[in-house]
Amino acid sequence: MTVTPQLHPVYVIGGGPGGLAVAAALRARGVRAVVVEKADAVGDSWRHHYDRLRLHTTRRLSALPGLKMPRSFGRWVARADVVRYLETYAEFHDLEVVTGVEVFRVERDGEHWTLHATGGRRLTGSAVVVATGFNHTPRLPDWPGLGSYEREPGREFVHASAYRNPKPYADKDVLVVGVGNTGAEIAADLAEGGAARVRLAVRTPPFIVRRSTLGWPSQRNGVLVRRLPVGLVDRLTRLLGRFITADLSAYGIPRPEGGLYSRARAGAIPVQDVGLVAAVRAGKVEPVAAVESFDGGEVVLADGSRIAPDAVIAATGYRRALEPLLGHLGVVDERGRPAVTGARCPREAPGLYFTGFTNPISGMFREMALDAERIARRIAKQRR
Questions:
Q1: Comparing C-alpha atoms, which of 161, 23, 164, 130 is closest to residue 86?
Q2: What per-residue confidence (pLDDT) applies to 236?
Q3: Which of 18, 131, 164, 370 is the most exposed place for a label (fewest CB within 10 A)?
Q4: Is residue 131 within 8 Å of 13, Cβ to Cβ?
Q5: Contact at 8 Å (CB) between 160 and 41?
């Protein structure tokens, strides 16, 4: 394939799956794309996730444009295999990737874009695609007294981003805070991996769905209902509730309020069960009330009770952290997320695109692959 030379390339900020997918789709259309990645290799966030992690979406529905995932990876692709795939993907498409360079500010400069990067670099691009990731910077609630807990001898506090495996927590009393997909899976991992006691602090009860039912993955349900009215999908899931969602109300996790799809659209993605339900029913993971504060070596819960775990793992999510990069452009909403994503540009910033900043029930990898094609098609069309 011959790539048509351009005076200014399209710069893609972030060498994860979203950024690589856009770069490959652009290259396939003869548009030069340069991926700028602050880490030393592509797929950096996947290199640092916990060992147990697997894609919650199927291999077939998680491939990026132009390269299937090998059958040898199995149906649910392991973290290490995702990293291998991203490395292979960049090589297969002969992508132009610059590692070890961080872009810290993007500015509009006439008809072009200027990227300010480490080492005093000023990069000029005809368009910019921001793909810095949905899970960028660990987020912690402003819990009163947290510092006092961390200073207590024999106590450990970490964000879930620092968790790798249960070995350091063998024979310890551990509290996991947060019952999203990460918190649920870490709690199950600890219970199976030798922790003496595992408690799971729950503030907002989630919908917990089977990863697959009779071989049919829940992701395909997400794909099928993606364009249906929210209210209709909520009613359908309520009718089918006992078949597709787990009921742990007898074990301390109440049935969630509201509709499954309306909550998903608001950002509360259902939890895919990869061991939590069995662990809770077996008493290996104990649901407790939400964390309110810390007092020395104790954790104060919302119901007034106090517990004294050896370690606290906060699975409390991430921030997009786009404000330093783009906040001055007025393209970030009040939640810190891009005002628009995919092939649409903010009205005040033509030529600026975002990918990987949504977490749909149809699967993040799948949506990033679709976004990549849409973005590349739009950019290529504008260059004609």
A1: 23
A2: 83
A3: 164
A4: yes
A5: no
